[in-house]
Write a structure and sequence with these properties.
The complex is a heterodimer. Chain A has helices at residues 4-7, 16-22, 28-44, 98-105, 111-116, 126-139, 143-150, 156-169; strands spanning 59-64, 70-74, 79-83, 92-96, 121-124. Chain A is an alpha+beta fold. Chain A is globular and about 40 Å long. By secondary structure, chain B is α/β, with parallel strands linked by helices. The chains are: A alpha+beta, B alpha/beta.
Chain lengths: 176, 325
């Protein structure tokens, strides 16, 4: 059985010292890699964004609370930018720890449970956020598989490395 | 007892069946069902594929068409019923008597369940649905004690189904106007309680403020557990003091009452939450599957905490064990 704590978001956070250490790093290489990754995922999963409906053009701010940067994500066309601070003019903003955000993308945690336990904060257009949440939850994405696909026949080592990192990041901590 | 599980997407449907659902209930992606949320629910094609998947795994699909048709748009609800029957639905869950009449006449062999939205809470009301439309099962409103459920089940000639986990409505279901008052839309007519289009959260140093249709309905301190942004679970200042005046933000968890519900003659147990994610469905369905299997083996069900999934991070036995009378 899926651990109720893990499935409801009691996951570890990035240590503050590590977050501090990566703060000075340039964002452009990360943006280049993640933007390419997003486009690849959308190409590999036709129909992935159908559930967004009228919210396909929405601009979402994604803020990992334990990292010194944030993301601006657009669905159509797929685009991802890494920024130090989110701008004001976004349709909606979603904030949570990196582990919870990754788990949400893979449908490993329940968004409502995260809201109830105050581990997920949402501001802006709630309809757009709900549409995004339901779209992603239905997609059944496995980021390890998506990552491996970037490397073709050499995809196995990165897949395994990602899985190890994910397992560490998503091992539930003690429930509060 | 059958385990009836929610699904808002095809992935959730598969998760529910993999986790041990006997049947899954779902709806079309329009206002004909009471969970009409953005990005949720099934197209006609998705329903057809979902039914094929369920049947290949020995599970059933119940289609909820359980809102009340608007006078000028009855055809939308009738078409939903026709399409669900055509797709091979094992039962339709219906609340409106006009639509029940349509289904009974147009599809006389189709199994019909009375939705909780119909608020059929006594044997006479249930007998009306059975005798008039051939209803085979009634989903009982969440206002009855286990003793009352046993009494009703003994008296009626159809099966009874009760909720065992998830969100609670404190009002007479199908007749609550709180959401309409604040947002102009309701679960009864448009299939949305507290529509997302009318919900706003604001993060401040004092915590999170939730608003519905411009009304401030709650403010949560930074570490305080929260609930859905519905008026019934809002906190208000009144002459009697400050706090939750309708209902606390808690979820139903009747795990410890399964034996009593079985003795009461209940045919099916329902998990609320078509709006929830796959992680909720997988965990909660698996918990109740195991609890029911344990009960079948003559043992007591394990009490595993499902608290992390509950509104307000708290659970209740609700009306099943009434303490206020």
């Amino acid at each position: 059985m899926m651990n109720p704590s893990a499935a409801s978001g009691h996951l570890p956070t990035i240590p503050p010292l590590l977050a501090l250490a990566i703060r000075p790093l340039p964002l452009l290489p990360l943006q280049f890699a993640l933007d390419g990754f997003l486009q690849r995922i959308v190409r590999r999963n036709p129909g992935l964004l159908d559930r967004l409906g009228e919210h396909r053009r929405a601009r979402f701010g994604i803020r990992p609370l334990d990292l010194p940067f944030a993301f601006i994500v657009e669905a159509a066309p797929p685009r991802l930018a890494v920024v130090r601070e989110l701008p004001q003019r976004l349709d909606a903003c979603v904030s949570a720890s990196l582990a919870n955000l990754l788990a949400l993308v893979e449908g490993r945690v329940d968004g409502d449970a995260l809201m109830f336990s105050r581990q997920l904060m949402i501001e802006g257009d709630m309809e757009a956020v709900l549409a995004l949440r339901n779209t992603i939850d239905d997609a059944g994405l496995d980021l390890a598989v998506e990552l491996a696909s970037l490397f073709g026949p050499l995809g196995e080592p990165p897949r395994r490395s990602f899985e190890i990192a994910r397992n560490r990041l998503t091992a539930p901590r003690e429930s509060r | 007892m059958e385990l009836i599980c929610p699904a808002g997407t095809p992935s959730a449907l598969r998760s529910a069946i993999d986790a041990g659902a006997d049947a899954v209930y779902c709806g079309f992606n329009d206002e004909t069902n009471a969970r009409n949320f953005p990005g949720l629910n099934f197209s006609r094609d998705e329903l057809r594929k979902g039914i094929a998947f369920a049947h290949s795994r020995g599970a059933r699909i119940l289609v909820a068409i359980n809102t009340f048709p608007r006078a000028a748009s009855v055809a939308l609800w009738q078409r939903a019923a026709d399409d669900a029957v055509d797709a091979g639905a094992d039962a339709l869950i219906v609340a409106d008597i006009g639509l029940m009449d349509y289904v009974a006449r147009r599809h006389p062999t189709q199994r019909l369940h009375v939705s909780v939205q119909a608020a059929a809470a006594n044997p006479d009301a249930i007998a009306f649905y059975v005798e008039s439309f051939g209803a085979r099962r009634v989903v009982l409103p969440r206002v009855l004690s286990v003793a009352e459920i046993a009494e009703i089940t003994r008296e009626v000639s159809c099966e009874t189904e009760v909720f065992v986990f998830g969100g609670l409505c404190v009002m007479a279901e199908g007749r609550c106007s709180l959401s309409s008052y604040a947002a102009g839309k309701s679960p009864n007519m448009q299939g949305v309680c507290s529509p997302a289009s009318h919900v706003a959260y604001e993060e401040t140093a004092q915590g999170t403020t939730s608003r519905l249709g411009g009304f401030t309905i709650n403010r949560f301190a930074p570490q305080e557990a929260a609930g859905y942004p519905t008026l019934c679970k809002g906190r208000f200042s009144t002459a009697h003091g400050d706090g939750y005046i309708f209902e606390d933000p808690v979820s139903l968890d009747a795990t410890m009452l399964l034996k009593g519900l079985r003795s009461a003659g209940v045919a099916a147990l329902k998990i609320e939450g078509r709006q929830r994610g796959r992680a909720y469905i997988e965990s909660v369905v698996r918990h109740f599957r195991r609890a029911l299997d344990t009960l079948e083996d003559g043992n007591e069900a394990d009490i595993v905490s499902l608290k992390p999934f509950t509104e307000g991070q708290a659970s209740t036995l609700g009306a099943y064990r009434k303490t206020w009378r």
